[in-house]
Design brief:
Helix content is 13%, strand content 34%. The chain has one domain: OB fold (Dihydrolipoamide Acetyltransferase, E2P) (Beta Barrel). The longest helix is centred in the middle third of the chain and has 14 residues, at 148-161. With 275 residues, it is mainly beta.
Length: 275
């Protein structure tokens, strides 16, 4: 008689209603390869770049905006699980399955199994929200980070997390968002866009900004998650994993004038945030 092997168990540290930290154990649901051999950011990028901003690209901005850029480019708030693109927690990995919350397709803090939120400051390169004046099913925005080495590092990270790994020579970051809900095919234009000209704070305290008025070379703070989705291989197995950014919000920091736009080449709230 053979004994059935027990399910694997994962321990997760959480905080209860009384503020006390407790350790809860959950069975680990079997996967078909989403969590690849404990792959983490550190396993792909052993040493993250320290060159977060190429200052020649932002020299024309005023002193206040330059200060914002430097602050946002290295911003970390561990309590809110928010990390600037160049300061991502090295140990983050694909999340795991728990009852009522399946994070296997999202990059998470391994101690909490909560998806991380990534902040990226950069210039808009291209956008796709509308088609013939109507919301497109999948919206997309491509942003160029303020540092060439940071852009290269990010494309290397996203490609390394994929299976099989991919290479993107564009050195720009593309984020997508479905403009319909899972429960309906009705399309609704992405509305999580905010005017952060004067202050970057919690979303409820910032004025909204029409997404259709965003344009090339606008300076924005893109807030996103890193996700993966599965595709079938030639043998009809779900072994192909594509990795991409899923946009949560866009905050406009500087509106490029029309001349810059034409000629130049180039959701998480934090308590008491005020930059």
């Amino acid at each position: 008689m053979t004994m059935e092997q027990p399910d694997q168990v994962k321990s997760i540290q959480k905080t209860n209603r009384k503020g006390k930290k407790v350790v809860r154990q959950f069975p680990v649901k079997k996967t078909d390869g989403i969590m690849q051999a404990q792959m983490s950011v550190q396993s792909i990028i052993p040493a993250q770049t320290k060159d977060l901003v190429d200052h020649q690209h932002i020299a024309h901005y005023n002193e206040k905006l330059l200060k914002w850029i430097n602050t946002l480019s290295s911003f970390v708030n561990r309590e809110a699980n928010v990390y600037a693109l160049g300061s991502i927690l090295p140990t983050v990995t694909w999340g795991s399955y728990e009852p009522f919350q399946d994070h296997r397709c999202q990059l998470c803090n391994p101690l909490t199994n909560i998806p991380i939120v990534v902040w990226m400051v950069g210039h808009i390169r291209s956008m796709w929200f509308l088609k013939q004046g109507k919301p497109e099913k999948q919206a997309a925005v491509t942003v160029i980070p303020l540092s060439h080495s940071l852009a290269a590092q990010t494309t290397r990270l996203l490609g390394g997390l994929a299976n099989p790994s991919t290479y993107n020579p564009m050195n720009a970051v593309r984020a997508i968002k479905w403009q319909n809900s899972k429960a309906s095919d009705d399309l609704e234009l992405f509305g999580e866009v905010f005017d952060a000209h004067d202050i970057l704070t919690n979303k409820a305290e910032m004025p909204p900004y029409p997404v259709e008025e965003l344009k090339k070379n606008d300076l924005v703070l893109l807030e996103s998650k890193i996700i993966c989705y599965k595709l079938k291989d030639a043998n009809n197995n779900w072994t192909i994993h594509h990795v991409q950014m899923e946009m949560l919000t866009i905050s406009l920091l500087y509106c490029a004038d029309l001349e810059e736009s034409a000629d130049k080449e180039t959701s998480c709230d934090i308590r008491d945030l005020q930059i």
